[in-house]
Design a protein that fits this description.
The chain has eight helices and no strands. The protein is mostly helical and 202 residues long.
């Protein structure tokens, strides 16, 4: 039983980490906080993680209520969210710049990184699907672990950028983009299966 719980947490963590993709946020976060003091950079890292975390926890706990209010079903949200996630994956893999803002002021870096860059439609969709399959505990732990790792990455963003370099960061982003697109295809397929009245799996 414990082994199943651990494996479920590892899977949920991996899925969320790939979609949050904090490594890809490193160059943008570093450029948005360039010239700021270490204290301010660390503050913005905390704000980014807090914003992303609040949104994910809200959708984790209240997803059913949100669906009821809007008159949606999980299957339809899977299809719509999967399509958006697929487009995000293609954007990452092909190096496009459709949804990421580069015009935000440095003081707003934390908010912009928190959403939509970290916690966008893909992350929200994944959280809700994980809650459907695993309940609250597993995705809660996975979200918390992802947020902790993301905070560390953003906290040391300048050092990471210097170590990896822009070329390696770009390559990692493209590979993660392909993984995101693959996860999106599975989510869309699960939504279609659910719409047909068959069991839904992530």
């Amino acid at each position: 039983m414990a082994a199943d719980l651990v494996s479920s947490i590892i899977y949920a963590f991996a899925a969320l980490f790939v979609i949050l993709d904090p490594i890809l946020s490193v160059p943008l976060f570093a450029s948005m906080t360039k010239g700021q003091s270490s204290k301010e950079i660390h503050k913005q890292a905390f704000i980014a993680v807090a914003v992303a975390g609040i949104l994910m926890y809200i959708f984790l706990v209240f997803n059913t209520a949100i669906f009821s209010i809007l008159g949606l079903t999980l299957s339809t949200f899977q299809i719509a969210g999967g399509i958006l996630l697929f487009l995000l994956g293609m954007e990452m893999a092909l190096g496009l710049d459709i949804s990421r803002s580069k015009d935000a002021t440095p003081t707003a870096a934390g908010v912009v990184i928190g959403t939509p860059i970290l916690c966008g439609p893909g992350a929200i969709t994944t959280v809700m699907l994980l809650s459907k399959d695993y309940g609250i505990l597993v995705p809660f732990i996975a979200i918390t672990l992802c947020l902790a790792v993301t905070w560390v990455i953003l906290y040391y963003s300048a050092a990471i950028q210097n170590i990896l370099g822009t070329v390696i960061t770009d390559i990692m982003g493209r590979v993660l983009g392909m993984l995101v697109a693959a996860i999106a295809v599975k989510i869309i397929f699960s939504g279609i299966i659910g719409t047909l009245g068959l069991p839904i799996t992530i």
